[in-house]
């Protein structure tokens, strides 16, 4: 659905997507790759990426929850979209953490005992999360573009309640 909105409303609606993209690109891609070089000698450093991510995701969920009555209905809709995607991403991170923990459990939590077969299992555990990051980057980029054009998903607009008298453009 597309609406005629002012510049400030569109700018406010882009904010949650910008925050989520910062987490995905800066933290899960750039920082993760940078930390891979240190992982061999200090594997605990890899925990930095999910810890930082949980702060970002926690803020997004908290802010989406506090958006009602605080933001314009259009911005509220985009906070809800971002919160839904954040929950999906949290589920993927928890699944990955469970699989990696099970993998480490197989070697009594001794990362030095990991063998090539274990690395393959670890890759299978991490691959769905990596794909999710890439898909979410595309989805959030598109959502940010939609916010700048005054568009929002019908389910999100309905859930926050479009004020009476506001009709979508044809």
Describe the 3D structure.
The chain is 74% helix and 0% strand. The longest helix is centred in the middle third of the chain and has 34 residues, at 73-106. Helix 3 packs across helix 5 (154-160). It is an all-alpha fold and 170 residues long. The chain has one domain.
Q: Could you give a short description of this structure?
A:
This protein is mainly alpha-helical and 170 residues long.
Describe the largest sheet: none
Mean pLDDT, as a whole number? 88
Could you tell me the number of beta strands? Answer: 0
Shape: elongated
Instruction: Please tell me how large the radius of gyration is.
Output: 19 Å
Q: What percentage of residues falls in helices of 4 or more residues? A: over 70%
What ranges have pLDDT less than 50 throughout 5 or more consecutive residues? none
H/I helix tally = 5
**Tally of domains:** 1
Which structural class do the helices and strands define?
Answer: mainly alpha
Distance between the termini: 9 Å
How much of the sequence is in beta strands? under 5%
Query: What is the helix/strand order?
Result: HHHHH
Write the layout of secondary structure elements.
Blueprint: H1 7-39, H2 48-65, H3 73-106, H4 116-149, H5 154-160
Helix pairs in contact: 1-2, 1-3, 1-4, 2-3, 3-4, 3-5
Name the features.
mainly alpha, 170 residues, 74% helix
